Amino acid sequence: xxxxxxxxxxxxxxxxxxxxxxxxxxxxxxxxxxxxxxxxxxxxxxxxxxxxxxxxxxxxxxxxxxxxxxxxxxxxxxxxxxxxxxxxxxxxxxxxxxxxxxxxxxxxxxxxxxxxxxxxxxxxxxxxxxxxxxxxxxxxxxxxxxxxxxxxxxxxxxxxxxxxxxxxxxxxxxxxxxxxxxxxxxxxxxxxxxxxxxxxxxxxxxxxxxxxxxxxxxxxxxxxxxxxxxxxxxxxxxxxxxxxxxxxxxxxxxxxxxxxxxxxxxxxxxxxxxxxxxxxxxxxxxxxxxxxxxxxxxxxxxxxxxxxxxxxxxxxxxxxxxxxxxxxxxxxxxxxxxxxxxxxxxxxxxxxxxxxxxxxxxxxxxxxxxxxxxxxxxxxxxxxxxxxxxxxxxxxxxxxxxxxxxxxxxxxxxxxxxxxxxxxxxxxxxxxxxxxxxxxxxxxxxxxxxxxxxxxxxxxxxxxxxxxxxxxxxxxxxxxxxxxxxxxxxxxxxxxxxxxxxxxxxxxxxxxxxxxxxxxxxxxxxxxxxxxxxxxxxxxxxxxxxxx
Length: 548
Fold this sequence. Notes:
61% of the residues lie in helices and 5% in strands. By secondary structure, the protein is mostly helical. The chain has a domain at 439-546. It has a 6-stranded mixed β-sheet with strand order 5-4-3-6-8-7. The chain has a two-stranded antiparallel ribbon with strand order 1-2. Helix 1 crosses helix 2 (46-58) and helix 7 (139-155) packs antiparallel against helix 8. It is globular, with a radius of gyration of 24 Å. The two termini are 45 Å apart.
């Protein structure tokens, strides 16, 4: 929880979600979410409702905004640890929770204002409650588990409500335990899942004509086929890039988890009712990565829903596999990571360009649209820290190979090593947010803007989502229809929010003072077409121009 409010919102990314929540708190209408006063239909309202509530309790701030995903991450960790304890005992439950908490990819999103950790937290809770409810014949737990999956649909995507029960149903069917169906799909639980997971989508469809087509067809079916009518600027990963990024984010826990999945497959454990929970977890973890890899559209965070299952499978690996071999394997892995960090530290920023391009959505967007890419120099010292910590972890684990004290000590050494690495990850995340934040430019606007002036943002507004948050001024958008607001931009009521270049040029030459915020490089910006454009300030990868 420390340092959540120490830096401004990262843009693109956090600022947009915070601003949507601020507008929701003002309007109170969760069916008609808005960004910049324009209808926003890309995500359901749970994140924004929780953020708005947090703002009402502790004020609208970066800290209160980041507290919501942080608490969701802790919920995911607690649910994973509880399920691990029920399946394997207290110690394995602790290892499972610690494995999820120390997975680098999960840790990053736990400090970031996005719906991903809410989504993962709901899915982890759903698996924990439903699997324990089935094993211990607790109908209330089963119903609450299905309701938790419904919450996942309300957090990010309706597939989060529908696919996890499918994985559990397949595991139960494989071992002949799917009947009676009401044992794992009670009517009360199904009703809660449908109401929570799909109810908002029905309401939004009634309130916004075309929403259902946009959500089901354009944002899912056509997105997978890379044929969207309303695309945004996100640049997908290749299948290989996605698998590498997802695997690295789950290291080193993916190694024992993979070994357990292989053991389950070789033993044909899906036929054993006692292994049904583990079959479901393995199906979910493999399915998330496999289906996403086969899809036509993949982003770095699409593997996150598999991380709780990976953590549980890894905990079982540390409980059942040869501890000395695992310690030796992790020592070798940490030694390799130490060597890679040291090599990258010695080479400097050039060694990080490919890493940032693969792992960071904003970097990929900026590189493809003429935006400003974050200078990787700030991350170089952190690589030195990583090299030292991983080298120390490799040394300790190598020593433990020769100590016969069971699996606990090596597992705890792995956890301790990762805990020492995470502060450097948090520092890198904070540095990136500070370097990309629109706050400095927005403060310039707030200090200079006068009644009658016009504020213009060039490009998709989500790239500077916190512009209105920090400036108190609502911008108009030029050349920003290829964005998360693309659907809303096609509606007649959004005409005044989206200007074309001709309208901007006319106002620029008129009597009103016009401020232009752009995150594009001078050669790629339309500012080159505007006469007498005067540069007033730059910061956070953006520039502020004025016509007089």
